[in-house]
Amino acid sequence: MKLWGGRFSGRTLEEVEEYTNSLKTDHRLYTYDIKGSQVYAQALRKAGVITSGEERKIVSALNRIKKEMDSGSFSFHSSDEDIHTAIERRLVELTGDIGKKLHAGRSRNEQVVLDVRMFMKDAGKELLYSLAHFVEVLAEKAIKYASTIMPGYTHLQRAQVVTAGHHLNAYACALYRHLTRFQDFLERNDELPLGSGALASNTLGLDRRFMAEKLGFSRICLNSMDAVSFRDLLAEFTFICAAIMVTLSRFAEELILWASDEFSFVELPDEMCTGSSLMPHKKNPDVPELVRGKAGGVIAAAVALLALEKNLPLTYNRDLQEGKVHLFSAFDTTLASVNIMCMLVERLEFRRDILAGAAEDWKLLMTDLAEKLVQKGVPFRTAHEAVGKLVKHLMDNKESPVEIRDSELKKIHPALDPEDVKTLCPEGSVKARKVPGGPHPSEVKKTARRLLNLVKAHTKNKMC
Amino acid sequence: MKLWGGRFSGRTLEEVEEYTNSLKTDHRLYTYDIKGSQVYAQALRKAGVITSGEERKIVSALNRIKKEMDSGSFSFHSSDEDIHTAIERRLVELTGDIGKKLHAGRSRNEQVVLDVRMFMKDAGKELLYSLAHFVEVLAEKAIKYASTIMPGYTHLQRAQVVTAGHHLNAYACALYRHLTRFQDFLERNDELPLGSGALASNTLGLDRRFMAEKLGFSRICLNSMDAVSFRDLLAEFTFICAAIMVTLSRFAEELILWASDEFSFVELPDEMCTGSSLMPHKKNPDVPELVRGKAGGVIAAAVALLALEKNLPLTYNRDLQEGKVHLFSAFDTTLASVNIMCMLVERLEFRRDILAGAAEDWKLLMTDLAEKLVQKGVPFRTAHEAVGKLVKHLMDNKESPVEIRDSELKKIHPALDPEDVKTLCPEGSVKARKVPGGPHPSEVKKTARRLLNLVKAHTKNKMC
Amino acid sequence: MKLWGGRFSGRTLEEVEEYTNSLKTDHRLYTYDIKGSQVYAQALRKAGVITSGEERKIVSALNRIKKEMDSGSFSFHSSDEDIHTAIERRLVELTGDIGKKLHAGRSRNEQVVLDVRMFMKDAGKELLYSLAHFVEVLAEKAIKYASTIMPGYTHLQRAQVVTAGHHLNAYACALYRHLTRFQDFLERNDELPLGSGALASNTLGLDRRFMAEKLGFSRICLNSMDAVSFRDLLAEFTFICAAIMVTLSRFAEELILWASDEFSFVELPDEMCTGSSLMPHKKNPDVPELVRGKAGGVIAAAVALLALEKNLPLTYNRDLQEGKVHLFSAFDTTLASVNIMCMLVERLEFRRDILAGAAEDWKLLMTDLAEKLVQKGVPFRTAHEAVGKLVKHLMDNKESPVEIRDSELKKIHPALDPEDVKTLCPEGSVKARKVPGGPHPSEVKKTARRLLNLVKAHTKNKMC
Amino acid sequence: MKLWGGRFSGRTLEEVEEYTNSLKTDHRLYTYDIKGSQVYAQALRKAGVITSGEERKIVSALNRIKKEMDSGSFSFHSSDEDIHTAIERRLVELTGDIGKKLHAGRSRNEQVVLDVRMFMKDAGKELLYSLAHFVEVLAEKAIKYASTIMPGYTHLQRAQVVTAGHHLNAYACALYRHLTRFQDFLERNDELPLGSGALASNTLGLDRRFMAEKLGFSRICLNSMDAVSFRDLLAEFTFICAAIMVTLSRFAEELILWASDEFSFVELPDEMCTGSSLMPHKKNPDVPELVRGKAGGVIAAAVALLALEKNLPLTYNRDLQEGKVHLFSAFDTTLASVNIMCMLVERLEFRRDILAGAAEDWKLLMTDLAEKLVQKGVPFRTAHEAVGKLVKHLMDNKESPVEIRDSELKKIHPALDPEDVKTLCPEGSVKARKVPGGPHPSEVKKTARRLLNLVKAHTKNKMC
Predict the structure, then answer these.
(1) Is the pLDDT of residue B175 over 80?
(2) Contact between residue D227 and residue D193 where contact means Cβ atoms under 8 Å apart
(3) Which of A183, A455, B208, B330 is placed for a possible disulfide with B195 were both Cys, Cβ 3.0 to 4.6 Å?
(4) Is position B277 annotated as part of the catalytic site?
């Protein structure tokens, strides 16, 4: 069935039908479409456009269609242009002329914008829950590894001593920011477009606030042309997904590094790795690699949404149909990626001995040494240079700080105290960093508990 | 001056210095860098690292440096790797060993993340003000054109009758959503990174909450590695810019269409157009065209920020230096584009007669006619088809609705009432749409006033 | 079946299998995979790894698998990780230990890079043919409309007189450039990766040149690590698709403009338009709108391919699996879009009367007038300014050039000859532009024939 | 000076002048613009529009302007909208009415497209030379390290033994493909647009083939509207840059990994590294990090070029002005990055001992062992599984292959020959891979020499 055609003489070409069909993408909106139509029927009845009996028949037929779709028994026709057409076609099959009354004053694009807002409500909440759970898993793991010493890196060069729990908390903090982005998004998205018609509202006197309440929206859109034209909310949703994927890609990169023979900081669980069809010894970190690779696709989805809306005059243009493709793909990928990375972290164990060994690298303590000079009154730049020279001396002579002779030390800089140099140790370094936001075990636990508290409200309803 | 070098033997190659230098980009951060350093000096004094006298000298020398930079008299050296180095180099010139004390416990990247957060505070507020002012200008213009009838479009085909004020309000609503995005961003950005050191906080006992208060931040970052590693806030800022530019590009497209000979809906002001070097008669809408073109660049800036952070292990990597390039470019372009589009709208006048003439097109009223049939009990789909046939008849016969014979009308559908068909008019169409969010003049004014009220708080301090 | 697992203790988690599975994407490579395996079996036999009898059995079982897949009777298992695993699993079912011999010395990624190169050969040729046919259709249409006068635009403002055929030829030229891009690509892609193993070639003495010949490649890859690592060829293919879509989006934009009530330059064929579910009078240019919208997705696919390869160490990383998703999506969309736009142009008819009417706009001839002054010795800048003043005078007084008094004319500039001004006409303008590459009908036909000649070789085998 | 204005009454607003000004970007085109104008003057003289004397004066004044610009003594005015205006303004200052004759029949956009094509000719050649030189450096380094054994990786897990020279050749091959892309591009770009006017060619009878010859173009554009409208050549150029940057980013990633404490495969030269302002011991691989980061920006530039041309009607629209920004930025970044990476590789030395040590990892040889079983008639899948079990046994028991008892070996698989297992060694592995494209030293040298030969023609004129 076509929802139009009175004014046309030619039949649409098959190639055109195929090119323009969106059912493959939008069929997943059916629950929202049906719910929206049921409330719309109520509003039509309230406005006197249909009778109570007609409303009941429409609502009940739509319930039946939902069941058919839920169970997979719904039979789609090749001429169903989209999910909205398919549902209306079936409604008319089931109710005849009554069904033909439902779409008074309503456009398909209006259904799309309603359905997509409803979808994004649910999808946003689902991602919010998954993020909250992931933060929880990270914070708990951070508490477990609060005092596990490891090297921290800048430029992938060993920099200073930190704790594994501190490192994990960094991701928890970043993910929590993404969670707040979805909170803000959900507030912004909470506006009912229904009643906007194709662009100019309607002449039927529909009660928009009634429909908003029934569909769980706090507000109604203030302008019918705005409601049907813009896709900035889809772009925002997709951007948040892309930003999450970028954060995950960084964690993924680290897991891949840590699982390499050279780092060996972690052993990834067998059940989350895969092997090679050719090389019998391989155990590959495919999951984090795919997370990285899929991040590229989600960034691209955000680009697509911005690019496709660019330069379009108001109001609706068919270009916008493509928006859903990229929104859904970004959501599906991001949700699966957050969840699989969460599973990986749940199973992640650090090799404390290897981390400790790596942290023994004396270079990691050179900043501490400079800061000790500072506390003796040496200007920092002078201390920095002195310690730099010490480093060069040690490396040129392949010595470690405990091996250097006191006289050599004094030659480099008189304030260099052999006692200070020789007692440098990773534990001492971490101990000295008991500052808010620092890597000291007690600070790590404090931050982790703070995060657990922040996400508590969001995880309680989530079973993961 | 280099802030490092003790451990190096070779001199850095000139090509490397040039390739890695970021002064051209980050010099604009100097105000923030100096302010941050002054507060940092206070914190060092509070922690007993420097004396009150030293603090005073540092603060005062930094004030002098600021003045030199403000006035353009500061002399940069080719060896200044970035703005932070330049300022510290000059500070040491002015204060000797005292200046060398300032950077104890602090890394350059930490300065960068502080400076950029401070920059984004100001930049976000500036964009927020500009958006608020633009919403104001649009809402006032919407009130002026609240009853100016014009055709509304879908698919760039004439669709239904709306009012020019209604059309303008659509953009005001969209821009207001962007404004709320900056509000959310500013809240999220309001966290002090200072005290994080290179990645592992510091050993000097700096009072981070004191520094937060002095620098106007509400909170401190919870984790030092998070604070120095991620660039999601820059990506978010840039994304909002890109989303704004996409909205502006749509308005720009419409202005270009409206200024064409074929539409002629508006005459753009001479003082905002340019001519052709070859064709003497041309008056071109260059400003909206450039807005569209620049939207491409700002979308690209968002891509760049996401792409460059992808796959980076914690914490800092030099890749991130490039983030500022894209952030600044997105901000500058977006601010200039919002302001110039606002100026264009301030000067924009619709040609009421042409709009009215275009709105006389009877096709715009066919949905109203179908809704009239609905109100007589005809199922909407049936009404839609009947009116579709009427449209085809009129077009095939090149007739208008007032010309069709009653008998012909009845042949198409018995419920088609000649009275209804002949009395269709644009004014009646708008009158029938007095629904919340609809194009009726009183609704347009209501929405405009609502928007004025929403942005009032943000525009009062703005002189534009 | 898994192609690995000997060294693993844990079973892979279901969620991991789902997350890493690529069958949905790569199943379409089966023809190439089978063909590649058949030639590989020959090479194994030549190297003495298998016997002739084993080779025959493998080749014949693979033929059977191909038939099963062609007919849809092949039964995929949920444990088939990808198309390569599925085929090998089935091969072993059919041939037992013999089938287990096939993959000696070969990695799955190597199969992927082979299959994708074979796919891109076919896909590139298919796009090349479609482009050639489209150029042909455009050139023929250009000949038909070689002397149809219409306004040409810059900045969407009427600029100078051109011919419709000239306008169509512009697209034909741009599409021909894209065609040459695929020619270059196909040459570059024409290199066999097989024999590279996972990364380090193989120890079995396979004859790579023999395999190249059998599989229709002109050369073999020079380095096994290069062969399995890079995806620049996929990125190039996808970029060309994106560039094509951008060109099509411009044509689409013009068709949408031309089909608007305001321009009315063309009537799009009913069979390629769609209607509105709400507004009975609508005939919407959905096809070109979708072309524009889909262009956003193909640009995004190019971004995805570049972003996902960025920062990956050699050689294979699982991230690369995602490359196929974006390649296939770009190819499918671009091919369908080229073909549907070609169908649209085949059915496109210009409204000669409306074009002629629009071209009567005297402003279109003002450059000709300036050039006439130049031919009388007036410096061009002076002529430009004089004609600019004439335009202003005419617009201020709402006059046309034939109405202005001679004395007024002379006041504006003494060299303005009333005869010149009054005899300006669109036909004369086109006539004066009989220069290579110009809009004169004979030049239009010359260019069209040149283009027909250039693409002849590519269309002869194409049935479209 | 404005090149237009006769028809305008209002003065352009300062903000508009600033927003639309492109001088900061396009001033670098001055050499091309002047050369193009000199040839244009010759063509005007040939067509009889100006005299020989006028031509001489124009050409000579343009030479003087070039000198002024070369030396930096040219004084730009704030009203110079772009480089074309600036040059014409000065020309008129120098020659009066004669200079006003130059622009007859020519539009600024036409100058832009000419200048940009000329720029891309030079820029493409420069990149081609730099790539050729880099390939040369890599190939020579590959010969030097042709027999240096090292582990090869997939999934960043040790996979099989290769040689360092083989690894370097992989990049040389990839870069050579990019070189061929520029060759193809240069051929496609080799078409003169001049003579196209604003869009409709000209009425002055200019000899386009003469101008092509004088300006070093092989062909003339076939259609004036095509010549001035499209920017696909800029997009192609920028895409090739992006693809190069992606390849470089992979090499950069490897250099960063190799320079880490954990890998320690190379020591980067001091003169190409930088230190930390805080941590005195740091030596950071800033150059490759920035290469990675800048890759994000060049990908974005390609996005910008595609996005800004999307949806634009023919012919010129001011949006296109922005194209140059992204083209120049992509070119500058890519050229600098190719050159700096080339310098890095010139100074790169592998630590042969560490590579050899890493290659001792017995897991790297397990595929060879499986292939040995294959050569004894064991089906590969069976061999793969058997060796997988051996790996598991060795890892569970923390044994190496030389330690396992023969009986244990036979238990795992009867065909496992202790002799085979115990004689596995990296040297043997490489020796067995003397196949075309393989890692064997003689193959490495063969490939390197082939590459040197391929690029020879391009490097001979290059002094780097």
Answers:
(1) yes
(2) yes
(3) B208
(4) no
